[in-house]
Design brief:
The protein has about 160 residues and is mostly helical. It has 6 helices and 2 strands, in the order ββαααααα. Strands 1-2 form a two-stranded antiparallel sheet. The relative contact order is 0.07.
């Protein structure tokens, strides 16, 4: 039977294969990291809920696929994983992840991170800005402690042996 120049018998099996093959590959693509953003978001939700061990569990699940994340997902993953390490008292790991996050996030859209989270992660500086240093107290740099005044007399001499 021929309809509009096509044979139903010869094209049916091929058309079915062309449709089913990509559908069969879809779960493999998702397992390979294409759907990792939802796990990053689950970790973020746990973080904001104060469930830091659960957030870390989600982030550790993403770790093998982190290089497959898009730039926004990678920025958010690195920042929130670093902040989660910080909340769990793991300062060295926190510094490592936040240090890796800075260049990734600086090349992206500032809307990827809530301003309060960016300030917490990067010390108030924009991700592309300089790393934060010690904050001077209000009113300028600290003055050295005054020495003994005239009313106190000279400092005692060190003992000699």
């Amino acid at each position: 039977m021929v309809l509009a120049g096509c044979s139903v018998r010869s094209g049916g099996a091929r058309a079915t294969r062309r449709i089913l093959l990509p559908l069969a590959a879809l779960p493999l693509l998702l397992a390979a990291g294409c759907g990792m953003g939802r796990f990053v978001q689950r970790g973020i939700n746990f973080y904001h809920g104060g469930a830091f061990p659960l957030a870390m569990q989600e982030f550790r699940g993403v770790e093998p696929y982190e290089l497959e994340l898009n730039p926004k997902g990678l920025c958010r993953y690195l920042v929130y994983r670093g902040l989660t390490h910080q909340r769990l008292g793991e300062a060295q790991l926190a510094a490592s992840y936040l240090g890796r996050a800075r260049p990734v996030c600086s090349g992206g859209d500032p809307r990827w991170l809530d301003p309060a989270i960016a300030a917490e992660a990067f010390g108030g500086a924009a991700p592309g800005g300089p790393a934060p240093g010690p904050t001077p107290p209000p009113g300028g740099p600290a003055e050295p402690a005054p020495g003994p005044g005239p009313e106190e007399g000279p400092a005692p001499a060190p003992p000699t042996y």
